[in-house]
Amino acid sequence: MRRLPLAGLLAAGLLPLPLALAPPAQAQQTLPETIVTTTRPPTPQERIPAALTIITRQEIEQRGAQSLAEALATVPGLHLAPSGGLGQLTSGFLRGAGSAGLLVLQDGVPINDAAAPSGAFDFGQELLMDVERIEVIRGPMSVMYGSAAGQGVINLITRRAPPDRAFAPYGELAAGSNNTLRAGLGAGGTVGAFDYLLSGQTLSTRGSNAVAPRFNSSMGERDGFRGGYTTARLGWTPEAGTRIEGLLRWRETRFGLDNIPNDDPNYSGLDRRWYGQVHAETRPFQGPWTTGLRIFSSEQHRRYSNFPDSLDATREDSRYRSTRTGLEWTNTLRLPDAGAFRDGALGFGVLHTLEEARSRQDFPSGFGDFTSTLRGSQHTTAGYATLQYRLGERLDLTAGFRHDAVTGATSETTWRLGAAYALPELATRLRIAGGSGFRAASLFERFGIGRFDGFVTSTGNPNLKPERSLGWEIGSDTDLTLFGQPRFATASWTFFQSRVRDQIVNVFDGSSSTYVNIDRARIHGAELSLTLRPAAWLEASAAWTITEAFDAATDRRLPRRPEHAVTLTGMVRPLPDVVLAPTILFTGRSPEGPFASYDNTGMAFTSPRSNKAGAVFHLTATWQWRPEIALFLEGRNLTNSRWEPVNGFVTPGRSLLVGTRFAL
Fold this sequence. Notes:
Radius of gyration: 25 Å
Number of helices: 5
CATH class: Mainly Beta
């Protein structure tokens, strides 16, 4: 078993430093200027001791990312495992953690599915018309967001109305391969103290066959997708420092599914979710204290149906429903300077959340009838406090702790410490951080019941402890001055390590099964990146992620965590109004567990196997025909790779989409 050489990684990361001893580079500039996900008060990115990836609206459009999964595909440390194209289950693994250990937020509010068996988020359903930017924070973040944030969070931030226009419409229309039609229309504006945003999007496609063509039984049956999305935001700012806003988002998707190794035209899915929040914030007496109150609620319905046909005599009709409601009180107190300490801020707050879930899975067959049911709920009450200060002109310090109490389960206290140090002489920023995280057991893991022919064969465990993790990271970002350009290149490196204990697994004792806390994992790895800007019309980036994720007891690699992942991206302007954005994604071999790998006949292997490495190539071209109108061409998987990110499920084939986008 190969180990990750820390000294070699540090050498690779620090190698560019001597090159920066030439004339000092300008301070690194990034968009957006402030980050809202890591700390309650908006904080400049260079002052945050965490590895961040910010995906802006401009990058989403220039790279032609029509889905959340496509937008996140180039994020270092994040591996997505899709079971086909749009609508298919897509799991996310951040820094080697399980898919249930990654928390997804919509404007700061969790939207993971409480009815999912492990509470994980499905990345295969979301489009991006209403998204202004995506913030991906890697590292322990339970101190800010509680359960499932032990390795990081992804925050989807909704578009906002322009402050200087009463009516600003925008939209797009595109069509292409597989009878794909994508359309969106929206408008926003500010009228006096009020602002608004309305946005809608729809997409329909015949799709592609998710089942790998290597199977002898593959018939090429396509799995289509239809989705509708609507977002509304209304805000009122009666005076500086005071704001009230409401946000409502609804989506519904319908899609085809398949069972390995057979195509199945009758297998289909429905996923519907609405989410809303009302947020009020004010600064009493225009002083240093900002206080806010947030009320949020979401509801998600899923249904999977498969009726008997000539290809499959079994029947499935599974339904899932989950709700999450909550109330959060947030506060930020700007602290006075104390000697060398300045720019201090104390954040504190209280949060109460109620999660409820109901589900029923029915699998009648000639071997017997299996049903799985869930009816459960749990309350979570949490309190947190964070502190940040700048020491002198270079060192930023952060600290925080949080306590979460879940009804009927063990409570958990988490912490985080971090520091960021600026070296302007070397155009470098060093950062180090460490902290703890946890994942509370899902409602299904606590209360789910399985029956076979009426006899109970599996049960949840209400007494499960949370999964707990402890991790740290160290890294740097350096701007290199070459050929008279202060930011000719930017080199970054991060080394991370974490330990996970009390992992929740399902154990079978010969007659029945239940969930227990027995597994442990050890994870370490590195994220290396280099961006070159040799000319005003050219930018090229390379990122390499190395992940070593092992079961601590068996010393085997954890499933679906590839050891190597490399992304190559570029922005080329051959003409002033034309942008070409190529992307190459390479993913190394990744292990699968027993009975999760299949030969060409569809027989499952009883021993662990590995998915083969694979690569895909995308290219998007955009022509800004007029200042308010752009024409674009999106090419996906142009080499028609047949790579299987999940064993048995193939990457969608080559496709082209042509369209126009406007912002008046």
